[in-house]
Amino acid sequence: MLARALVICMLLGLAVLPGSADARGLRLGFLDDVFSQGPAERDPWLARSVESGSDILRLSSSWVNVAPTRPGAPTDPADPAYRWDSLDTAVKAANARGLDVIISLTGAPQWATAKGRPGGVNPVAWRPRAAPYGEFARALAKRYSGSYRDPERPGATLPRVRTYLPWNEPNLTTYLAPSGPGRGAASVPRARRSTGRCSTPSLAV
Asked: Taken in order 8, 14, 17, 19, is the CA torsion positive or negative?
């Protein structure tokens, strides 16, 4: 599966990642769905990532999976509608191996998208509403602020995540629709064009 793993080539990301990234030059990282799976599938590849010299791992928050139903208190990570278990486990596993985590906030649940989706358009990409997305982002940042208690370990806190990707490849309708030039585009109208897979800037908190 790691044939699809990517060297994370975000020059913008290098400027905001913690530590001495600039002094060390380009950093090696991986992205693959296997890192969000169970320990039997994930842990061997985490070990191989470390052995390869990687120090960055990108994980997807998968908004639609974390919040399949609308939370009553969307900025509160403790709202019972949120399902953090899988992401918590992946973040902790990466952190335990000394890997910096980048979390991608992408894939809108249907309750947070506009009506009128055309046939053939990815449901999680269609016109995500900005306000619910911002509320989810706040809940996510609070949970991985470094001071939020770990529900599975009394007295411990969840690891801190400093770097986030606001969306995955917003220049592609597969991930954000409608996109591109023209009236009614859901993506940022003046977003810079990019090539390859590294099309989303990083944000640090």
From this structure: positive
* pTM tops 0.70: yes
Write out the residue range of the structural domain in which residue 166 sits.
28-112+122-204
Residue-level pLDDT, tens digit, the chain, 205 residues: 433 333 333 323 333 444 444 455 788 888 777 777 788 888 898 989 999 999 999 998 899 999 999 999 999 999 999 999 999 999 999 999 999 999 999 999 999 999 999 999 999 999 999 999 999 999 999 999 999 999 999 999 999 999 999 999 888 889 999 976 665 677 644 333 333 333 445 555 5
In a domain, 13, yes or no: no
Rounded Cα gap, residues 66 and 61, in angstroms? 7
8 located within any domain: no
Domain-embedded: residue 190: yes
State whether the Cα torsion 20-10-93-69 is positive or negative: positive
